[in-house]
Amino acid sequence: MNAKNLFDLSGRVAIITGGSVGLGRQMAGGLAEMGANLVLCARKKERCEQAAEELKQHGGRPLALACDVKNPDQIREVVEQTVSHFGRIDILINNAGTSWGAPVEEMRLEHWNRVIETNLTGTFLFSQAVGKFMVPQRRGKIINIASVAGIRGAPPEFPAIGYHASKGGVIAFTKDLACKWGMHNIQVNAIAPGWFPTHMSEVVIERNREAFLKKIPLGRFGGNHDLKGAAVFLASDASDFVTGHVLVVDGGQTA
Ligand SMILES: NC(=O)c1ccc[n+]([C@@H]2O[C@H](COP(=O)([O-])OP(=O)(O)OC[C@H]3O[C@@H](n4cnc5c(N)ncnc54)[C@H](OP(=O)(O)O)[C@@H]3O)[C@@H](O)[C@H]2O)c1
Q1: 60: pLDDT strictly greater than 90
Q2: Ligand 1 centroid vs 243 CA: distance in angstroms?
Q3: Minimum-distance ligand 1 atom for the alpha carbon of 195
């Protein structure tokens, strides 16, 4: 197959959790530009609708749905609506995520649980729900958004142990699901971004700008197009022989 065709996503159907803003919105843009039909879901439906409206310029028919990834019934509803609207699901990007900052000694169980349930359990529940359709269709791409925080620890001034543990869990989940579902021709990979200024990260980045930049060999933070290539690659036929991989996109921070 021609190399350009390997990356073509025309007619493919992708669900992107947390696709309304930030990195999810960026990856949604990348997939739409390559021809995919999108389903954007997050808790605030209006922001999904706004993103869907903007993405219509690429010619697809994006769907905006409300969903809390902590809620299995709402996940099932998104998956069923996707299939009834588009007739199939080819790609899932488990991107919805959250964090909570507190020193380990003071981290309250409810805050730990909220981070693990959103980042890790949400990834499991959504993968399980799309698997019901991907397994029988013998084709699918699951992309889990981990973080460099799932690969390394951080000093005490970055007190987010639940976030680190959840992202480490996402990486282990990715590798194990890749082993389990390879026989169904479903590729399961992760992307581990470094620092990208978004709603979630902007305060931490502002407080530590110079110190962070010193540790990033490329000397800058992630920008508005830096995740698109990784997402399109892992969503497309170009990655058909890649599974269980963690693609680090961090400007060299963990090199
Ligand atoms: N920015 C970075 O530097 C960075 C680095 C590494 C990894 N990441 C990861 O990248 C992903 C996106 O983060 P971001 O930086 O783009 O953050 P963001 O701008 O805060 O966006 C987070 C997205 O997740 C959605 N979300 C949060 N909780 C949800 C829930 N319970 N159910 C459904 N949707 C939920 C939000 O929408 P609602 O609030 O409407 O639900 C929003 O769409 C996260 O997994 C994050 O851990 C980010």
Answers
A1: no
A2: 24
A3: 3
Element (H, E) at 117: none
Distance in angstroms (rounded) separating the CA atoms of residues 138 and 6: 18
What would the pLDDT profile of 5-57 be if each residue is shown by its tens digit? 999 999 999 999 999 999 999 999 999 999 999 999 999 999 999 999 999 99
Q: How many CB atoms lie within 10 A of CB 56?
A: 12
Instruction: Supply the residues annotated as catalytic.
Output: 163
Please report, to the nearest 10 degrees, the dihedral formed by the alpha carbons of residues 113, 118, 121, 124 taken in order: -170
- Give the span between the Cα atoms of 113 and 147, in whole angstroms: 18
C-alpha distances out from residue 202 to 195, 209, 214, Å: 9, 10, 17
Q: Is 204 in the pocket of ligand 1 (CB under 6 A)?
A: no
Q: CB neighbours (10 Å) of residue 235? A: 28
76-80, long-range: CB < 8 A, 24+ apart: 76/129, 78/15, 78/39, 78/41, 78/129, 79/15, 79/126, 79/129, 79/130, 79/132, 79/133
* Integer Cα distance of 220 and 65 in angstroms: 34
Whole-number Å distance between alpha carbons of 130 and 201: 29
Q: What is the pTM of this model?
A: 0.98
Report CA(53)–ligand 1 centroid distance (Å). Answer: 20
Rounded Cα distance, 231 and 84, in Å: 25
Cα 102 from Cα 89, distance rounded (Å):
38
61 band by pLDDT with thresholds 50, 70 and 90: confident
Q: Which of 99, 96, 79, 101 is nearest to 88 (CA)?
A: 79
